[in-house]
Amino acid sequence: MPSQLSPHVSDIAPGRGALRPARSWLHSDTPSRSLNGAWRFRLSPTASVTEDFAADGFVDDGWDSIPVPSHWVLEGDGAYGRPIYTNIQFPFPIDPPHVPDENPTGDYRRHFDVPADWSDAERVVLRFDGVESLFRVWVNGVEIGSASGSRLAHEFDVTSAVRTGDNVVAVRVHQWSAASYVEDQDQWWLPGIFRDVTLIARPAGGIEDVWLRTGFDHGRGSVEAEITADAAAFPVTLCIPELGVEHVWAAPADVAPLDVTGVEPWSAERPRLYDATVSTAAESIALRVGFRTVEIRGDQFLVNGSRVVFHGVNRHETHPERGRVFDEEHAREDLARMKQFNINAIRTSHYPPHPRLLDLADELGFWVVLECDLETHGFEKLDWVGNPSDDPAWRETCLDRIRRTVERDKNHPSIVIWSLGNESGTGGNLAAMSAWVHARDTGRPVHYEGDYTGEYTDIYSRMYASVPETEQIGSDGTRSALLNCTPAQSARQRTKPFLLCEYAHAMGNGPGAFDQYEALVRQYPRLHGGFVWEWRDHGILATAPDGKPYYAYGGDFEEVVHDGNFVMDGMLLSNDVPTPSLHEFKAVVQPVEFVFDGEKVAVTNLRHSADTSDLRFRWRVEHDGIPVASGDLEIPLVAAGESQWASLPQVAVAPDAETWLTIDAALAAPTSWAPEGHVIATAQLDCSARRPVPAVRPQADWRPGDGTLSLGIAEFTGGSLVRLAGRPVTGPRLELFRAPTDNDESPSDGVEESDDSVAGVSSADLWRRDGLDRLTTRRVSVEHTADALRTLDKVSAANSALCVMVESIWSIEDGELELRVEIEPSRGWQTVWPRIGVRFELPDGTAPVDGAQWFGLGPLETYPDSLRAGRTGRFSATVHDLSVDYARPQETGHRSELRRLTLTSGSTEVLHVEVLPDTRGRRPGFTLSRHTPQQIARAAHPFELGDSTTSHLIVDAAQHGLGSRTCGPDVWPEFALRPESRTIRLRISEG
Ligand code: GAL
């Protein structure tokens, strides 16, 4: 056969020969065979290889074996190419609908058996649940058809091609095709047959498709069935045993809506499902039915009459070893984890997930925005010229995609909104998709963020709107224009519910300001919350040169174009570890609010519809973090949206310690997603008696000295600390630098940001410009008194006249060693600072410092705009666990509002540090790390940090906030750190 380039790859049409209309992904009792497993596989570098492999008699003995489902770039240790990560960029020339001749093409073959008893089947159907990006199918050498729409199901009628006994199926998969232009989502490009392949016997008299549309209204449920079956297949019976429903429709014309009494509604909080079957004599289909009515009333989005607030996440299908291959057990764990962290909604960014995920969402309870597999973001670079969303040539492709999306998943009660796709500009094809959905499903609204002006969608949706902008949208100022809208369009958008389909970009250490958005949602009913970007990092497990495993991101596979670590922006690390941001989110969106007032607490149930009968409330009192009393708190049942007052217990206030009362709301019984006792909401009340902070003792008799002396446990040479309690320790050294976070490294867009920012320049660049990462010191003076040492240092950077004067006073106070550091910046600093702190080095010795115990905020890191998950208490952690393993090393580990710190070596307490608040009551935080900020800043991956046994303690008078600038607003001015004078006072004693 002559070699020729495949004509298919440039074909805009979604394929030939797949069954239409698409239908639901159903659980049927008709026979089927999974064709998952080992397939023969051959990878060619171009699409021009001959097609003789599809022939019945082709001998594939020399071929490799590959598992299906899988992505070939994740198999074979690199033998089949490597993953490519891009966000917006197309990794091939923008030449639509063409793709390069260098088009990796995977040929797959396998044998399968058709049992003799399938000869009764009316039809045999071959279903592919996901193939990226374009594939052609042959059965026994007969070409069956082709399809694209990678994250969509495609079925083919193979009846006339199959035979009883042995058969062979051949599939050719092209990595690139015209479809790649509409699948430009921000994720790895991962070709292959990555979802299930199934052979299905369709009986005569079977049910082609079924849709049970349900409703709920004041205790009454309704079922409106749509049955797709031959007239001869009737009667069709609907059974919902738990509700006593057994309804027979004798003929198609009899199918009519049913009312059902005694129904409990479905909600994300109480996901009540009823087992149902729809059957004919030949086939029975099992469904799990949830009763709920979705409705937009004015500018409110309601389910069962109550406003929904989405505390959601954007969920991609991603796994460090399997890519987008679905693993049900892992997905279930992930969804349970979401529930544990108070997440109640999922946007399936940016394509339909494996169909089983929606079964899990129905069962565990999530509000789902189900998104179509459509993104043409790369056309933005061309000012959207030729955008498939607006070119009639692509209309059928767009429509085919939305039809397959809606039809496959239409039975799920969890899906409350259909989304047309993501970042595809705007245009007539999107409007046509929306019109099709409106006609097909009147029970769910249509979302698409790119419809800024609201021409064809039902919800006003935005991504990364700033806090002031979100407030402007929520408030009633109908005359102020919204982004990209005329005043009239703005007024139209304000008639709709508002959703942040993406906000709070969780890349690296961040984001800040969850609480500011949540406060707006509480204030303005039009605002319905949103979906954090995003649930988890997409790291791919790889091996570093030194053999250590690590999570790879863009560029790690030597891609020609890539977008670096922009794919690592989840609240969960690639290895399933929740980052502090997930804890912060959980605390901010907790569904129960406690407001203390004297001896009472008001308990407000912020849920959609569930009361508090599933919760129990506990209290405990701690003195300096040590528990002294606890008990149950009797709180009357609180209905959704209501509040109840309860009396607080008598709290024994300690005279010489801080006294804190903590209340937890916890699950009273185990659920499918968490054990009994799992805490969903917490609040703390400071009941401490006021205690004076020792005043600074004035010292007058300073005289110059050589600075070589001992003061209590401290030894100094030349005015510099050399030992504490006999172990080598140096410091304090001014530290103004932090290893820039991803947000710190992001250029400012110059919009609505603090006056310190420079458009197009990142904070980190400004810090490096000013030399914060390379400060040098000049000792100005060393002075003594009988029991004190004072040094004055001028700290500045090369080629800069800016400086910070640092005065360090060591003295013996009340028999203890005290260090007071006065930090005074010169005039002229222009930018925000990452931190104002002092650093101590504790080099390895016989017993390296490898852990900390502290009383302050914990247990996890906190920053000024991300403090809500922190509680005041006593905590301990190893030096390793004090840091978060962000995929790209960066600032981590800051524990705020420190009172007392003990540095430990194994079980030995090495040094105690007591922290005195400054005159304004502000308390410093601390970081204990194996690496300096400068070392961390140089590493692109954790394995590049190298081993170290030195510990670096930084005590920070202040830290800059986190913000969300990688994609969204900068640090809110209130949490931005301007250069300023600060005092740090520490009392240090031996362990
Ligand atoms: C959005 C986009 C997401 C992701 C995010 C940044 O614009 O919809 O897919 O790219 O930005 O991480």
Automatic annotation (TrEMBL):
Its EC number is 3.2.1.23. GO terms for cellular component: beta-galactosidase complex. It comes from the Bacteria. Residues 717-989 form the Beta galactosidase small chain/ domain. Keywords: Glycosidase, Hydrolase. PROSITE patterns: GLYCOSYL_HYDROL_F2_1, GLYCOSYL_HYDROL_F2_2. It catalyses: Hydrolysis of terminal non-reducing beta-D-galactose residues in beta-D-galactosides. Residues 742-756 have a biased composition (Acidic residues). One of its GO terms (biological process) is lactose catabolic process. One of its GO terms (molecular function) is carbohydrate binding. Residues 737-762 are annotated as: Disordered. It is an enzyme of class 3 (hydrolase). Belongs to the glycosyl hydrolase 2 family. This is Beta-galactosidase. It comes from Streptomyces liliifuscus.
